[in-house]
Amino acid sequence: MHCKKTAWETAIKQLEESAAIAGLSHEILELLKKPQRIYTVHFPVRMDDGTTKIFTGFRVHHCHALGPIRGGTRFHPDNTLEDIKALALWMTIKNSLNGIPAGGGKGGVVCDPATMSRFELERVCRAYIRAISPLIGTWKDFPGADIGTNEQTMSWMLDEWEQIHEMTHDPAAISGKALVLGGSEGRPSATGLGVMFAVRETCKYLGLQMKGLRVAIQGFGKVGSWAARLLYDEGVIIVALSDVYGGILNPEGLSPYEVLKFVEETGSVVGYPKSESITNEELLCLDCNVVIPAAVQSVITEENAPNIKTRIIVEAANGPITPEGEQILLSKGTFIVPDILANGGGTTIAHLERVQGLCDHYWTEEEVRKQYNIIFTQVYNQVYHVAKERNISMRMAAWVKALKRLESAIKARGWV
Length: 416
Prior knowledge:
Helix content is 45%, strand content 19%. The protein is α/β, with parallel strands linked by helices. Among the domains are: 34-170, Rossmann fold (3-Layer(aba) Sandwich); 190-342, NAD(P)-binding Rossmann-like Domain (Rossmann fold, 3-Layer(aba) Sandwich). The termini are far apart.
């Protein structure tokens, strides 16, 4: 039995491999292998029953060579510093790849929002912002939403930030907040939209039709549910969906809209009447056109990669394929759209939200989607052509493109 790689080990291996292809100097590689700032905080929160609980939180700044830090805020009971470090590194690469003038960061609290009341969750959000306030700010670090956080939690965080600094209006300080507080149209669907664009562009290059494409999606949360709906609207057949409790399969196709209603009533996709039950592991190994891992990292490894049958994998989650698993898939001819390309919608539209906040001028959802469509299509095309020209994987092509931009910024600053 092989030990499961940590997300940080996976991220470092990807960095080292791509740095060698990109011809990065030893000094730049060593700089990027270490986060510039790691902030661990412990803070008290009064619970509804009158007891005080001590929570642990993190905020990691990986590299700010390209500009202020951007990155989400993850509330999850299994949060570890190793995971947050990896996610921050991936954010640096993701922002660089997409041409965003920002560095990469990530944060989070070790907690389970599902077990807390609304008032407890609000107190945790406000206490967390107070604890990390020395690190964040409009021109320093622009925290956004991630797993376990949403527009309400980010709105509480923005309000706390504004109160701390005695500001009545600072919409460019926190992203993912409610529209009425300066959030952006299109933000909830952002990452799922990028996944849909990734499938669309891949079909163009591989000569496939989107309509009738058979797709399985592991993870029916914020990203997976939006990806499912947007793909379904394009005529894709969603054959399987899953969540942490298990999966559902219908070879004739599932309506993600109907499944979403079922989830809202029951709390899970499991038991959806127009389906048969499958495991998350079985979903990944289905014989279909596209598999989209949209849950957590390291779900495809050297152990199950030989059983993967799909032609295309689009990484909606961060780091769902280990390096060893990827080598097996590539040897079989599997086409992989890497996470830093496929799931960049969240950070790209967070960037557009920040631009709107700084100007205090807001766009329609159609305008936001149009902007992102232009950015995504251009980046995908560049990555695809780098992969073909250099005979490397899409992941390595994306990393090489991102690293070369980072290298230019680091050298321009005189860091090396």
